[in-house]
Amino acid sequence: MTKLEDYHSSAESQWCPGCSNFGLLTALKRSLVSLGKAPHEVCLVSGIGQAAKLPHYTSANLFNGLHGRAIPVATGIAAAQPELTVIVTTGDGDAYGEGGNHFLHALRRNPDITVVVHNNLIYALTKGQGSPTTPLGEHTRLQFSGVTEEPIQMLATAIVHEAPFVARGFAGDIDGLSDLLTQAIAHRGFSLVEVIQPCIIWGAHPVDWYRERTEALPEGYDPRDRDAALSVAMPGPDRFPLGVIYEGPERAMFAEDYTKGTGGRPLATLSPIGKDTIEERLARLTWPRKGERS
Q1: From 223's CA, which of 17, 74, 157, 191 has a CA 20 to 30 Å away?
Q2: Beta pairing, strands 114-119 & 165-170
Q3: Is the pLDDT of residue 43 over 90?
Q4: Are 7 and 34 spatial neighbours (Cβ–Cβ below 8 Å)?
């Protein structure tokens, strides 16, 4: 039986003391334990940023890559080894800025991955520049006179493209967030959970400001109503309804038919590659090769 301690990592945290990312990390671990997922059954994928450090603070499989490139990597991992539970942990800049194009095409492809976006409305790792989600007019360390572009609306974009699962959570509500993540991970296809994750150093508002402005979706809310979901996804700059915002119609998943010609075997198991083989292939890509002039 999987326990919370199974996800313990000895890596030293680089997050600020009191960072709301710690709440998000705890919520994710709890959700994986509640689903009975052992660390070896999970692969966490990230790019660059504070959110991208989360996989290092677990004992699960991980891939830490380039800025904005987590989603295509996760899509490939899920396609090659569908038995893995593949989760992207990313920030609003990483996912919606540098990785915005990949995000859009993932909505079209519908891979079986869960994308958890740590949204603190700022580029926190680089000390406070405006991100794609920073509210219009907000003063930042770079936009001295205020942000001049409208914030991007990726929850609404996901709904328009019939994403199977779209939700918003709050890092300050660990129990509620854990429940949302559990539902998202268990859901087939592309699941998006945007987490309001206040930055206590560079953010424009303290955690309590967000806590006062988060609210559960009303009783009787129907997440299959796309018009209602769109109105919830775009509530304004200072209200954050929490919960499962949208559940789209069932769709074919990217790469789900890849095993038809392999006798049901995942692509990752067809030709096991050992360390020696990997080193041989890398050596062939090295230049100059032995005996060649540089």
Answers
A1: 74
A2: unpaired
A3: yes
A4: no
* 193 neighbors 200 (Cβ within 8 angstroms): no
* Structural fold of domain 4-254: Rossmann fold (3.40.50)
Structure tokens at 217: 């979706």
Taking the C-alpha atoms of residue 165 and residue 155, their distance in angstroms, rounded to an integer, is 10
| Residues forming beta bridges with residue 88, ordered by sequence position | 45, 115
pLDDT at 266: 83
Instruction: Give Cα separations from 22 to 85, 121, 172, 185, 213 (angstroms).
Output: 21, 17, 10, 19, 21
Angle ∠(5,49,98) on CA atoms, nearest 5: 130
Alpha-carbon distance 184 to 116, whole Å?
9
Tell me the pTM. Answer: 0.90
Return the domain boundaries, the chain: 4-254
What distance separates the 2 farthest-apart alpha carbons in the chain?
73
Query: Computed from CA positions of residues 129, 130, 133, 139, in that sequence, does the dihedral angle turn out positive or negative?
Result: positive
Our CA angle for 259, 246, 199, nearest 5°, is 100
φ, ψ of residue 196 to 5 degrees: the values are -70, 110
Residue 41: phi, psi to the nearest 5?
-95, 0
- Quick one: what percent of the chain has pLDDT higher than 70? 95
The two tokens of residue 231 are: 């109105």
CA distances from 97 to 68, 101, 152, 196, 251 (A): 7, 8, 9, 17, 27
Tens-digit pLDDT profile for residues 109-154: 999 999 999 999 888 888 888 888 888 867 877 888 877 888 999 9
Quickly tell me which residue has 């080894």 as its tokens: 81
Residue 292: pLDDT band with limits 50, 70, 90: low
